[in-house]
Design a protein that fits this description.
This protein is an alpha+beta fold. Helices cover about 35% and strands about 20% of the residues. It has a three-stranded antiparallel sheet, with helices on both faces. The structure holds flavin mononucleotide (FMN).
């Protein structure tokens, strides 16, 4: 929860995780464009987590708000950038938020 900007969903879940990428070496070998690619791959893993959690009857949420330097300190890789935390996720049982409204994807205005 502390590493995830104080968000309770990171503390109260079944588990939460951080996706750590080999950073410097990838960018040196593949070029700067690989920066975007690393995030793309993290997002792909996140998408699988969304689907697998749903299939298992629970839920998950991507966590884009986290404190990267404290994460790196905890892992012992700060201040180097050999490894970088790119994206986090939390998985657990859902608690519906009554303040949110879900509408059908295709309303009467769609012909
Ligand atoms: C890259 C990314 C980062 C996210 N970070 C957070 C987060 O830090 N905390 C959180 O509660 N939800 C986070 N989410 C989940 C979004 O809040 C969630 O997708 C949104 O609530 C879905 O609402 P919608 O169906 O209206 O798009 C993140 C989602 C993505 C794709």
């Amino acid at each position: 929860m502390q590493l995830s900007c104080g968000q309770e969903i990171a503390r109260d879940s079944t588990f939460a995780l951080g996706m750590i990428a080999e950073f410097d070496e990838r960018l040196e070998t593949c070029g700067p464009w690989f920066y975007k690619r690393l995030f793309w791959e993290a997002g792909l893993i996140g998408q699988v987590l969304y689907l697998e959690a749903e299939a298992a009857g629970i839920r998950s949420t991507g966590i884009g708000c986290f404190f990267d330097d404290p994460v790196h300190r905890m892992l012992g890789c700060y201040p180097q950038t050999k490894w970088q935390s790119l994206y986090h996720f939390t998985v657990g049982g859902p608690i519906d938020d009554d303040r949110l409204t879900t509408l059908p994807p295709y309303g009467p205005h769609v012909t």
